[in-house]
Amino acid sequence: MTYTELLEQARKNMDGYCLACPECNGAACKNKIPGPGGKGTGGVFRRNFEKLQEIKINLDTLYDGEPTDTSVELFGRTFRYPVFAAPIGAMKLHYGHLHDDLSYNAELVEGCCSAGIAAFTGDGIDPQVYGGALESIRNAGGVGIPTVKPWDVGLMKEKIRMAEAAGAIAVATDVDASGLALLKNVPTPVSPKTVTELGEVVASTRLPVVVKGIMTVRGALKALEAGAYGIVVSNHGGRVLDQTPATVEVLPEIAQAVQGRMKIFIDGGIRTGLDVFKVLALGADAALIGRPFVTAVYGGGAAGAVLYAEKVGGELAETMAMAGANRLSDIGRDMVWL
C-alpha cells in the first residue's frame, strides 16, 4: 500500500468526519468539533501547521558523511526515530465508526511498536478506554505511554499503579485537559494541578512522568520543579483554547530555560520528517504526531501506522543527510532558518 492509497482508504472509512487531506493543515475541517477541527475559529490548529512551514532548512552537504542514524534514547530504551504517536480519544465521535477507542489503540500501539517507535494512548470517562489501552501496551511488551487525565490526585495515582502493572515504559498526564467542559460534570472531574499536587503524582511512581500541555517557560519550570521526566510543548492540537501561539513559536524559549534538565517533546502541526528535523533543531528531543496517525490507522490499521512512521522517518533521514547531520545530536539551531 502506498501513502496515497492509505489516504484514499481512510476517506472511505471516516464517514466524512475527516477528509484525510493530503496536507493535514486544518483548512478543510477548521472548527469542526465533533470532528478533527480546532476550538473556536480553528485558528490554532492552522497556526501550528503554518508556523512550521515558515521555518526553512539550511542545505549543507560539505561534511564528513557517515551512515545517517535517526535513533534516539528515551525512557531507558532506544527508538528507531524521535517520533511518537500522540494520544487521541473519542474516535467514534470525532473520526468515524470504524474504530472505537479500544480498537484504535490496539492497532496504533501494535503499529508503532512494529515501526520501532511508541504510542502515547489516551484516557476517558469510560474506564474501559484507559484499561483497554493498557492491555494493548501490555501486549506490546510495555512499549507505550498511557496518558492520565488530570483527575483528582488519588485517581491519578490509581491509574498510574495500573500502568506500572501493565509494564508501561512511562506515563504521561495531559494537564491541559483540565479545561475540557466534557470532563467537568463527571463524578471525579478534572482540575488544574498545583506544583505540589503534580509533585505528589510524580513521586508516587518509579515510571518516568511526562507532563503534556506546556506552553510557557513558567509552566515548564513548574513541571521541572515537580520532578517531571519531560514535558510536551502542546496546545492540545488547538482543541482546548483559541488564540494561543503555535507550539513551535514557544519551543525555543522553553528549551533555553530548561537547558537539558528534562526531556522536551512537542506536538502541533508536525506532519513530515522535515517538520521533525525543524523542532529538533529548535530544542526538542522528540516529536509527537496526532491526527495523521489517526488517518493512518483508519486507512490501514497497524500496517498503516507502520507505513506512516516509516515515511516520516525516511524524510527525517534524508533531511539530515542534506543538512549535514549524521546523528540527531548533530542537529542544531544553525541548520534552520527563521
UniProtKB/TrEMBL annotation:
Keywords: Flavoprotein, FMN, Oxidoreductase. Belongs to the FMN-dependent alpha-hydroxy acid dehydrogenase family. This is L-lactate oxidase. InterPro entries: Aldolase_TIM, Alpha-hydoxy_acid_DH_FMN, FMN-dep_DH, FMN_HAD. The active site is at H236 (proton acceptor). Its cofactor is FMN. Glyoxylate binds at R239. It comes from the Bacteria.
